[in-house]
Structure formats: structure tokens, C-alpha cells
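Lab notes, practical 5.
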Amino acid sequence: QLQLVESGGGLVQPGGSLRLSCAGAGFTLDYYAIGWFRQAPGKDREGVSCISSSGGNTHYADSVKGRFTISRDNAKNTVYLQMNNLKPEDTAIYYCAAKVAINMQAMCAPGYVMSYWGKGTLVTVSS
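Output from the prediction step:
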């Protein structure tokens, strides 16, 4: 069974950092572009950051540019989202998703259909 498993969420104070991980279970992520998406209560799902299969092409939402960094380690079959200088408005459930794709800006846009989704990990930024 093909699965994506997120981890690393939790409660952090404003200005703090977290690193989320997205691991592939049952399949290799090598050929897939991976996106991180988030959904806050009462809001639509938002594309946070996307990375190509090779890691050479990335895209970030304007709201996280300069604070979040996406990376991948194909040897570990894992994609990471390093989140620094967290703000209360970053509070959401964060999901990773996989798709064979080449345009990371398009993949992060609303309505793009992804092939596989994880179950999400909750990030809460609060003092």
C-alpha cells in the first residue's frame, strides 16, 4: 500500500522553528514531485511549498518565502519542510502530497490534483 507519512508537527511559540518530514512508505519518492500544503480551520487548503523530483526546482507561497525551506533526501526517501520564524497564522494541519509533475508553481496552485496524500500533522503556533 502506497502511503505518505508526515511527522514533526507540534506546539511552538511565535518565532520558533519546526522541521516537518514526509516519508514514503511502500514506494520510492524518487520520481515524484512533492508538495507541502496546509489547511487552517475555516480556510481553504493552501500550497505552501513544492519541490521537483530532483530537488532542483522549488516554489514557495509568498506568505512563507524567506522563512520556510523545502528539501529532499532521496536516499532516505524523505522530504523536509524547515519552518523558521513561525507566526500564529502558520497554525494549520500540514499535509504532504506526491505527483509526477514538472511545474512546481502549478503544482502548488489551488485545485491541482495530486496523486497521493498523507494524513497530515498539526502545527500550532501560540504563546
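Observations recorded by the TA: The two ends are 39 Å apart (CA to CA). The mean pLDDT is 96.
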